[in-house]
Write a structure and sequence with these properties.
- The chain is mainly alpha-helical.
- α4 crosses α6, α6 runs antiparallel to α14 and α9 crosses α14.
- The protein is globular and about 50 Å long.
């Protein structure tokens, strides 16, 4: 089974993206589930402020990404990816110095660094991925990324939780800074992509609200809604449930992830054999149910069982959704970067809407009831299977 993956001749561009993204995933793995917890403690346990932080960065990005894409016409995608590593490193440099006394000044700077990283990274990355991957092998190729992401998302927090418990956050911030800079080495070998963003600012928004594009936009928006609950609310919820034990948070994440890696490879083969639409339908259904199950979690054992179930379901929903998204991007031809901008706007619109919901519901209900929104959003992603197309 594994030989069928490594016998494929993937492009040099793919391996450059894979190498850089893997190092970035390791860097973010050290702080992925712990960054919302860091902010939660910084804001004295105020979940509304944590949600607002993530919402502000997405809101600014929504209105600047078309302008950023126009800027990249002259600056170049390859140069943008190279510069993005410095914005990513700067983000963690700022967090290294943040405390309650200077947070009023440094939090806005960290948001600015986040927006600049996104502007210089995500449009070139998604565009290059669509260009450097092969439609007949994309499921396998994407599985490489997802397996690497699963390993880092599960195993790195085990080490990170230990380091934070023993030495505090400063050490993991330093590690993340170094790794972001190291990731830039892979971009020296990345091929040049000849793409030009051809829309004006107003035309971009016209296409975004075009009725013909609505199903795909709704699917990508739903993806953003679910993302906020997954990467922001869920870590804080389990941190509270485990009574602030950083190591146990990391340990449980590692334990859950180990059993999912082989399944990720199997999924890649199924997707390349033309089963991505069926897998998306089943995956989104079972993944949605996973969020409902998480509402009733009370113990660390519950976290393990629910997390394991959710992770397996996510393999089928996430991978199939991403493969179909990149297939759709490839079909746009020279409009792949325009498609990517619309995707980014929709995805972060979902994040902003999710933040508003989290803030409102947190005043009247326990945090876990936001998981209902994540369940509904996860199922809505199924639109991409039936109606998701875009016309450039």
């Amino acid at each position: 089974m594994f030989n069928s993956y490594f016998d494929n001749n993937f492009s040099d561009g793919f391996w450059a993206l894979f190498g850089a993204k893997t190092v970035i995933m390791i860097a973010t793995g050290f702080l992925g589930i712990f960054l919302p917890i860091f902010l939660f403690n910084l804001f004295d346990g105020n979940i509304q402020k944590v949600a607002l932080y993530f919402g502000c960065s997405s809101l600014i990005y929504i209105f600047t990404v078309p302008l950023g894409a126009q800027f990249l016409n002259d600056f170049g995608f390859r140069n943008a990816l190279r510069l993005s590593v410095f914005w990513g490193a700067l983000f963690y440099v700022i967090f290294y110095f943040i405390d309650k006394q200077n947070s009023f000044y440094l939090i806005p700077l960290s948001i600015l660094a986040t927006v600049l990283f996104r502007l210089f990274y995500w449009t070139p990355y998604h565009t290059d991925f669509a260009k450097f991957t092969d439609n007949s092998k994309r499921g396998k190729q994407l599985s490489f990324f997802n397996v690497a992401g699963n390993i880092t998302a599960g195993l790195i927090p085990l080490l990170s939780g230990f380091l934070i418990a023993q030495f505090g956050f400063d050490l993991v911030f330093i590690i993340a800074i170094i790794l972001y800079l190291v990731s830039g080495l892979f971009y020296f070998k990345i091929p040049r992509t000849e793409e030009k963003f051809s829309w004006s600012y107003s035309e971009t928004w016209k296409k975004f609200f075009d009725k013909k594009n609505r199903p795909a936009v709704l699917a990508f928006t739903a993806d953003g809604v679910e993302a906020i609950i997954s990467v922001t609310v869920w870590p804080i919820f389990i941190f509270q449930l485990l009574k602030g034990n950083y190591f146990e948070v990391g340990y449980l994440s590692a334990l859950i992830i180990v059993v999912t890696i082989i399944l990720q490879f199997i999924t890649g083969n199924l997707l390349d054999n033309g089963k991505k639409e069926k897998l998306l339908g089943l995956g989104t259904l079972f993944y949605s149910l996973g969020w409902i199950i998480k509402i009733f979690i009370l113990t660390s054992f519950h976290i393990f069982v629910a997390g394991l179930y959710h992770n397996v379901a996510k393999i089928f929903s996430r991978t199939s959704f991403d493969v179909m998204t990149y297939d759709m991007a490839e079909h746009q031809g020279h409009y792949v970067d325009e498609f990517t901008v619309l995707h980014e706007i929709a995805f972060h619109t979902g994040k902003v809407l999710s933040v508003i919901f989290v803030i409102l519901i947190s005043f009247v209900l326990p945090l876990q009831w936001t998981f209902i929104l994540a369940a509904g959003a996860s199922f809505l992603m199924n639109i991409l299977r039936k109606e998701g197309q875009m016309e450039m």
